[in-house]
Amino acid sequence: MTDFSIYTQPKVDSHCHVLDPQGFAYASEVAYRPAGQETGSADYFAQVLAAYGVQHALLVGPNSGYGFDNRCLLSAIAQGQGRFKGIAVLPLDASTEQLAELQAQGIVGVAFNYALHGLAYYAQAEPLFARLAALGMFVQVQVEHSQMAALEGSLKACGAPILIDHCGRPSVAEGLHGPGFVALLRLAETGRATVKLSGFAKFSCQPYPFADALPYVQALLQAYGPTHCLWASDWPFLKADSRLDYGTLLQLFAQAVPNAAMRHSILWDTPRRLFGFGDTR
Fold first, then answer.
1. Is-contact 252 232, C-beta < 8 A?
2. Is the residue at 3 inside a domain?
3. What is the CATH number of the domain that holds 135?
4. Which of 240, 252, 280, 281 has its CB surrounded by the most CB atoms within 10 Å?
């Protein structure tokens, strides 16, 4: 049953991208160049947010298209005048001075996409983890299958606040007791980790409404609680192998979290606290 109240209550989208190849040309060395419906400018995305009653968003720099080029991301944050914060994509040797400069421009953390690049690519990431921890910035990780089992120790030891993308992209074939998902549940014990209840299409083995993803959402809610869970759309749905829409994803969240108080915390209170958004509705 459609829950129309989800469209009117205050919300923060905690994982989305701005891709504007006309305004910001893609980097020459990137392996994948999003096109067509995979793209969307900051101006257009603002209209999407307005249509669904979303007040703020955490913009994530995409590896696709831009790589280490964060100009499009920074421009969108500046254009948003407090509406947006950002997660940058940076090389592992990014200095404390570079991080502080980006932090002053609204960047709250750095993305580590293990699902795309693999574990070996980030073998020397711990010094950057430490620099982020010193500034109170987030280590944002996207993993899949059992990768979290290999990362659990370093993430627990790093001291930085941690964001986990897309429910940790567990292996549905392994079930709730798969080593990667169990490690993700244990990470909640740090009190520094927050998980995004998003990206069901990235790990579900079923078509919409991704019924096999729901047990993972419920397990994460139980382990992390609403004060360490976030909702995100993943707009504009890069490399999606089937149609996804903003409104239907909001409805999936409403069905997964019917409790009004929990939903308000996940959609509004928790992201505002974590990312420093104001009271604007």
1. no
2. no
3. 3.20.20.140
4. 252
